[in-house]
Amino acid sequence: MHTPAKTEAACWSCHAPHAGGHFCAACGKIQPLPRGADYFAFFGLSQKLWLDCAALERLFHQLSWKLHPDNFVRASEYERELSLERGSQLNDAYRTLRDPVARVEYLLAQAGMRKEGAAKQQAPPELLEEVFELNESLDELRAARRADGAEMGVLIERLEAEEKKFESRLCEVDEELKRVAAEWDAALDAGGEDSKRKELMVRMNDVLNRRSYIRNLVANVQKELAEAQ
Amino acid sequence: MGKVVGIDLGTTYSLVAYMDPATGRPRCIPGPYGTPLCPSVVSVDADGSISVGDPARRRLLTQPDRTIYSVKRLMGRGVADVQDELKLFPFHIDPGSQQVIRVRLGDRVFTPPEISAFILRELKSWAEDFFREPVDRAVITVPAYFNDAQRQATKDAGRLAGLEVLRLVNEPTAAALAYGLHEQQRGLVAVYDFGGGTFDISILKLISTGEGDIYQVLSTNGDTHLGGDDIDNALRSAEIEEIHRQQLPGFSSSQHAQVIRDAVITAKHELSLLDKTLVKFPAPEGGWYTREITREEFEQAIAPIIERTMVPVRLALADAHLKPTQIEEVVLVGGSTRIPLVRRRVEEHFGRPPHCELNPDEVVALGAAVQADILSSGVKNMLLLDVTPLSLGIETMGGVVAKIIPRNSTIPASAQELYTTGVDNQTGIDIHVLQGERELAKDCRSLARFQLKIPPAPAGMPRVEVKFLIDANGILQVHARDLHAGEARSIEVQPSYGLTDAEVEKMLEESIEYAEQDFAQRQLIEARTEADIILKAAAKSLADEGAAELAPEERRRIDAAISLLRAAVLGTDYKLIRARVDELNQATMHLAEILMNRVLHVAIEGRRLEEV
């Protein structure tokens, strides 16, 4: 026996049942965006983290033709409002999903699993020693700059070498994120239990925190180096 | 509905263009002097009448206190922002100005949007004279790097000029649209737009899809205070120094500022074609001041200014993750790109000769006309996906800015923030919205401040979601929603720089006094003049002896038509006047024939007499 889904709404214009989607299937009018609409669902995608970027771009262009406010300049005020809502959601969704890191951040945030905690300021344990050395070099450089020291060249070189090390660390973290993301996709395919997914989300959150720590570190060193040169 | 046009509201010149249905190509509309270039100069006469364009430009020399040029530099800016400009531009800023500048022209005071509205009105009337139909909607272009306040000011100017602004389009994007149409370009394109007062660089990707062509802006950068004006000012300072060195008798740099400006601008133009020229102007105590300047000297003097354009070029490429050599086409836009040094420098950077097939002065207006046609006709085979040039942020603890919409995001774009209270019964949350790339609020551009009203509740209980949205014009909208009540909350957003809606409304009412420039008004004047001519002609004909030949019925018809026309002239309906003119023409047709015959008859008889 078939019972219509409770969530099924009606088109604001022709009152035909509306199952979601950007336009009413009956009259073709643009529909309001449901609250809390998900970026993946907006593109009709599952929450898998591996995305074919060229295909996503094509989808983005197709939807742009339909949803961009330029299409609604002559429509009613309400439809113009809706196109602004859906058009901006399209751009927000594309901006987020095309970037692999932002994509993971978004997935976790939607599930309430993105927790930065204290990790922003705390060095990951395995990096403690390297971070300590880096900070020492930074201090020396700053002292040398204040004193207009002659050893600047040597210090800059050392710092640059250390900075390179962290850049490669960043690549490693990105690789790790890719691996966990692939596990997440596999778990979605397998239709596994929630606990497995939750565990993967915790791991991804952990990787993201490490990543942002290293990224901040690298950015700061680059800034100092730029100022010193 | 009236006609739709595309308008390039430039620093030095403004233009209006339309889509020619016969050719499917955009065309610029010429003004009364035959050229489509309307100098962006406005002058207020002692009797309060406004002149715009060439007549106003001539008054720069005779009435500098009542005349203003380059007003675009003041759009959307506060007094503190323009201190540097004031040293170089003869703007008479009213002392009462704060967040919105007020400019004194003679004994009257105007905001920059009002002055720009005079220019827009002038262009509107050019187009109306051309179409002989009212024009009521327009696409207006703005520099890509214009911020929210500068865009809002431009939109206000459109409204004050009686135009519905269908869209603000970024100038380089408009140029790309015109070029794309012209050249059938595809791939990665850089538009280098160096105008009179602003510099923009935009990197676009042109994509063919089943539905048509998409012009997707990947990144944009620029400087809204870098243009030909800066070149002129540099040349002028150098010239003034030289004049002082020569101790030219009777010379005063403040009094003769405009004369020197004109002289160096002429020399600048000539040096785009010649290897050397003369800076020449009438000396204060008779004779001419002349000095030879070579192209080499000129290039040396302006090289630092040209070099400043390369900084945004590098930043835009970096944001698009591209190297200069990956760009497939480079397009030059804006009058300053006529300078050979600019062309050489751009070619050197991108490693390929730039396109300059289309007139760099006209190409932006042409693109605006294309977009105006797309938006108004609903026929779409092109789509512009533009970006916001600056990151949008909100002030957080310690004056730090949290970026919520990054620069170069495709617009429209939005971001949501959830707000709650920190203390019991707190009834408001202050929100400060900013635009810019710097970390601290004090270094970014303040867009708006507002207070979110919250009903009293225990701390942390209220949940208000605020949606910050940048629309397709690049202008901020803010919406708030109480998540508990599920209802939208209206918020009064006070712009940090710029006019409130109420102020624009008030100006709109005030601007009615300038409405004699409006289409209906002009039509009325023309129709009344026509009526006057035909009424005089009819009276003269009826006084002729030949009128006696008219049948009484005919005579009555003419008299009736005359009194109907006289009544119509007293009214303001120009269409009625025209109809009555036609009726009188009809009624007097036979009378005209009679009189013509008599004239011929007399002429023939006269000849016969002579022949005899």
Description:
The complex is a heterodimer of chains A (229) and B (612). With 229 residues, chain A is mainly α. Chain A folds into two domains: 9-98, DnaJ domain (Helix Hairpins, Orthogonal Bundle); 125-228, Helix Hairpins (Orthogonal Bundle). Chain A has seven helices and two strands; from the N terminus they run ββααααααα. Chain A has a two-stranded antiparallel ribbon. In chain A, α2 packs antiparallel against α3 (77-97), α4 crosses α7 (194-228) and α6 packs antiparallel against α7. The longest helix of chain A is centred in the C-terminal third of the chain and has 39 residues, at 152-190. Chain A is elongated. Mean pLDDT of chain A is 84; it is low at 1-7. Chain B is of the alpha+beta class and 612 residues long. Chain B folds into four domains: 3-227 and 303-385, ATPase, nucleotide binding domain (Nucleotidyltransferase, domain 5), CATH 3.30.420; 228-302, Actin, Chain A, domain 4 (Alpha-Beta Complex); 392-498, Sandwich (Substrate Binding Domain Of DNAk, Chain A, domain 1); 518-611, Substrate Binding Domain Of Dnak, Chain:A, Domain 2 (Up-down Bundle). In chain B, a hairpin with a 5-residue loop joins β5 (41-44) and β6 (50-52). Classes of the chains: A mainly alpha (229), B alpha+beta (612). Chains A and B meet through α2 and α3 of A and β14, α10, β18 and β21 of B.
